[in-house]
Each structure stands twice: as structure tokens, then as C-alpha cells.
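Chapter summary example.
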Amino acid sequence: MTDEIRNLPKRSDPVLRVVPAQKDINANGHIFGGWVLSQMDIAGGIVAARIAQGPTATVAIETMEFIAPILLRDIISVYAKLERRGRSSMAIRIEVIATRDRGQQEVKVTEGLFTFVALDENHRPRPLPQD
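The structure predicted for these 131 residues follows.
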């Protein structure tokens, strides 16, 4: 996929909104992939904990795609929603949108599917609460 700028459809409010700092750039002048991955994990964890009504842990990243670079002055919005629910685990679809040029452009920069598991007091998997 190219670095195409898109007119993205309106979506729900972001789970997380962050501005990367100078320390987050790599030698190419873009934001480190690991930095954005950690932001995605934080946002996914917020959604997973709400669904689990308690602590969760990330157990897998099923898919992850870096679509376009994140630039230093971008404002990053991280969106996350439940895609699949199991007995003790859930798959959370996470999408990252960069807002550029003082809000004039939005670019989908990254997306992935993260799996979280609900944890009990002994940090072992536990069933998710009923809907």
C-alpha cells in the first residue's frame, strides 16, 4: 500500500491521542515502529480491560501493518474496537491515524489485530464476563 492521503470516514472517538516527541524519531526522521506499537498496545489494553472488567494481558499480535511513516509533527489518534470474543480472550482491532498540516490531512499509518486475555488475581486466564 502507498503513502496515500485519504479522506477517512468519521469514526468513534479515539481511545488515545498522542504527539510523538523528538526522542521518538529514527535515523530516517520518522517515528520508531516500536513507539507506535506501544501506543497501540496501551489503547488496546484500555478497551480490553473495559470488556474484561479487570486486568488483561497482551498475548499475541495476529497482524500488524505499517502503512505509512509517522512524522515528527503528526498528531496520532489510536482507535480500538472489539473484533472477536472468546471464552477468556478477545481480539481488538487497532487503527492509527496521523493528522498532519494543522488538521488538513489524515493518513492511516498503521493497523493491527491484538489478542488480549482476561486475568484473575493469580495472573492466570479467566473467563470474560457475560455481555
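To summarize the output: The two ends are 37 Å apart (CA to CA).
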